[in-house]
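2.7 Reproducibility. Because tokenized structures are sensitive to small changes in the input, we list the exact sequence used for Enoyl-CoA hydratase, including any N-terminal residues retained from the expression construct. No trimming or masking was applied before prediction.
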Amino acid sequence: MNDLVSIHVDGHKGWLTMNRPDKLNALSRELVAEMKNGLDQLSENENVKVIVLSGEGKSFCAGGDIASMNDIASSSEAAKWVEYVSSLSRKILEIDKYVVAAIHGYAAGAGFSLALACDFIIAKKDAKFALSFSNIGLIPDLGLIRSLSERVPSPIAKEWISSSKIVTAVEAHEQGIVNRLTEGSLYDEVTDFTKFIEEGPNVVNKYVKFLINHIDDASLDNYFMTENIIQTTLLQTYDHKEGVQAFFEKRKPHFQGR
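Resulting structure tokens (single pass, no recycling of outputs):
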């Protein structure tokens, strides 16, 4: 890993922090590569139950790096760039563990896309989410249209995107996009929020994330079949047996992820 990202494991939390503050953590090819490597590293760490994505400096992420986009000279290069940077959102969505976005300053453009790819968003009350794509003649990318439309009504999504709206954290919270707001320490708020993940059975969280993220991918019959197979598997786990025993013993369960 190099200094474009920093990784810190705190309890069962793995912090992945974008460290390009001079560019407001704009997504260059190099930063995307280091973030994907960092996500793989934290995903493979058995002690980590939840990954927290944050940004160093004044803002979470200012979006795509304009300099990187200016270097694109052909349609084939443009296609490769879009596919490459979009793979970061896909990795966040497909990773087995819950990912929390910790937002301060601006999450603009592709930065908003990354936040929406995460499972939860914790934001400073004065943070802002910018949908600036139409100002430069583009549609949102990195999965933003899909992720936003899953959270707000279609007319709201269309209005926000086509008007290049800047959404305040308060408005995003009211619309159900942001899980929690804080005027205090973002670190403390994230730590408090993630307790239920750190103390819970991560094998269950893995399947909950999968089922919800793929809820529209299958027919009703296939969905129930998948759910039944997963439940059958979970009924055989240590964590299920520990949860039942703790229930009868009137104590807190100690899950081990197996």
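The chain has two domains: 5-198, 202-248.
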